[in-house]
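[09:14] KT: can someone run the structure on this one? pasting the chain below
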Amino acid sequence: MATFDLFRNKNLLDNKRFHRNNSDDTIHKICLKNGLLTSVLLIMSFLAFCGYTHRLEIHQLSVANMVLLAFGVYFAIENISPNGKAGSVDYFEGFKVGLYTAIVAVVSHALFLMIYTYFNNSILLEIKNGRYGIAINPLTVAGVTLFEEFAAAIIITFCLMQYFKKNEY
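[09:31] RB: done, structure tokens below
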């Protein structure tokens, strides 16, 4: 019985369609694609948890947001990697791709939250009448979300680049 082995079959190994460098994606397309996909995941998690319960202050949601943001940044950096493995990306190029992806995701998510809270004032009134007693508006919600998630994006990108950076001796 014959088995298929990719490493023994030199014709498939030399075929350019099986290499990651053959992609027509530029860095901007990769950042935009992964950032928008991550933003869609962040918006869906918000709608699943907060939109359903009509509460804006679910603290566990920030953990889910950080995990989704980490997945988006990871896949963006993996897309620019020549072989998709660790130790194959120039540090500053990968850091830049991770931050651009996170900026697209975070800004899109903050804009969605601003629009959502503008049209659904019941969430903001619940916070005002709740234990905090502060006046809050949709711009404040977007600003706080933008600040919190961008700070997390810097830390996530820094941590992921420790895995993907080239080892230069």
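[09:33] KT: thanks! The CA atoms of residues 40 and 109 lie 8 Å apart.
[09:34] RB: yep, looked fine to me
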